[in-house]
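Below is a filled-in request sheet from our internal design queue. Each sheet records the structural input a requester submitted and the sequence that came back. We keep these sheets so that new team members can see what a complete request looks like end to end.

REQUESTER: design group, bay 2
PRIORITY: normal
MODE: inverse folding
CHAIN LENGTH: 89
BACKBONE (tokenized):
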């Protein structure tokens, strides 16, 4: 079951990994991105819909539920803060 995304805010910063040009280690640029998501989730387990929502934005390195409100009918409004990785091999 897909969560509904009420609000998404993303901030990105580039981080260079590896030794850089001429070092023999290679050039690898990965992007770390902070993501804030607000999800409306149906009753049931939370982990799978949270992981699905985060995967749409990259590979999650860390995440936390920073707010949660129970709504009528068993739905839950959840705010997530995460850091995701782009460009890793």
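RETURNED SEQUENCE:
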């Amino acid at each position: 079951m897909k969560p509904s995304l009420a609000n998404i805010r993303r901030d990105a910063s580039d981080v260079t990994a590896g030794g850089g040009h001429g070092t023999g280690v290679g050039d690898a640029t990965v992007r770390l991105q902070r993501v804030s998501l607000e999800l409306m989730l149906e009753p049931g387990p939370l982990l799978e819909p949270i992981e699905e929502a985060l995967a749409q934005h990259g590979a999650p390195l860390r995440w936390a539920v920073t707010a949660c409100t129970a709504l009528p009918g068993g739905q839950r409004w959840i705010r997530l803060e995460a850091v995701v990785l782009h460009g890793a091999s």
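SHEET NOTES:
- The mean pLDDT is 81.
- The first strand starts at residue 4 and ends at 20.
FILED BY: M.R.
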